[in-house]
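Service request form, structural biology core

Requester: graduate student, group of Dr. S.
Request type: structure prediction, single chain
Budget code: on file
Notes: please return the result as structure tokens.

Sequence provided:
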Amino acid sequence: MARVALDSNVLVYAELEPDTLKGQRAADIILRAARDGVIPVQGLGEFLRVVQRRAPAAFAGALKQIVLYRATFLTPPTTDDVMEAAGDLAAAHGLQLWDAVICAAAERNGAKALLTEDLQDGRLLQGMRILNPFNSANDASIDALFS
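Core staff response, request fulfilled:
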């Protein structure tokens, strides 16, 4: 199994839209990635920010969910080294800085793929593949990551 990183949007769909197809797909991805997955601390922060803004009543539950994610996933912090690498990624590839932070933290912690709907699907960054987990054309590639 390849190490897979998750972006905040996967966590948001699982938390705020559990009855939708995206929410169910997100929950499945989280369960499958939990064995050896990465959720950068930046992604956890973005998750909390979105929940706080979109569903304030769910914020306390999201805080509890963060504890579970930190116990289950590798959650690398945003260090000086990660920020430097993120700046380089942002400059070289035209990424938004905070997206680049997630990419840099994930890549530096062994992720071979980042599952997100926020970046260019299929793009290769520093040897890490960006895949949209909600694009059914990626199902076989994502299944291969988890086998």
